[in-house]
Inverse folding.
């Protein structure tokens, strides 16, 4: 069942990438008492995610935070080491917090997992973004295909007012 606006984010464990390394963190701890943006990436180094999707969040991170967002998270079904390298290469560390969902636990729990086995990529996230307020989804924008439109940083800013 796909997550809907008004529903609580399921409790799962992820890897958070920071300046000091990779650490285990629960979604409950990440989202409790905070208003955040969660960007779901198909894959860290996939062309559309690396060249179109995440650069908008990097470029607009200050504007998004100024709109009442405590933190911007980007998550992909990649391991923590891949996400750490992606963050380093994209200059994300300190601006967009990267999360690794290596076993696709969150992708499946949210019901936004995407089977890309035919392309040799296994289970991934559907490309999207959501606004989460104290663990509850208040805005959900999932892309119907390969586009980066409703899940873009620019669209996110329009929903934040």
């Amino acid at each position: 069942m796909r997550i809907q606006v008004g529903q609580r984010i399921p409790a799962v464990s992820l890897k958070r990438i920071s300046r000091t390394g990779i650490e285990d963190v629960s979604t409950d701890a990440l989202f409790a008492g905070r208003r955040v943006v969660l960007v779901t990436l198909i894959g860290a180094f996939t062309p559309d995610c690396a060249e179109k999707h995440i650069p908008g969040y990097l470029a607009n991170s200050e504007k998004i935070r100024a709109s009442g967002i405590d933190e911007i998270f980007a998550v992909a079904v990649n391991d923590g080491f891949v996400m750490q390298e992606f963050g380093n290469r994209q200059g994300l560390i300190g601006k967009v917090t990267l999360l690794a969902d290596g076993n696709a636990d969150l992708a499946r729990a949210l019901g936004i997992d995407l089977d890309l086995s035919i392309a040799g990529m296994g289970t991934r996230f559907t490309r999207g973004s959501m606004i989460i307020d104290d663990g509850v989804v208040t805005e959900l924008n999932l892309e119907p295909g390969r586009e980066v439109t409703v899940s873009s940083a620019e669209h996110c800013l329009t929903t934040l007012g």
The chain has a mean pLDDT of 95.
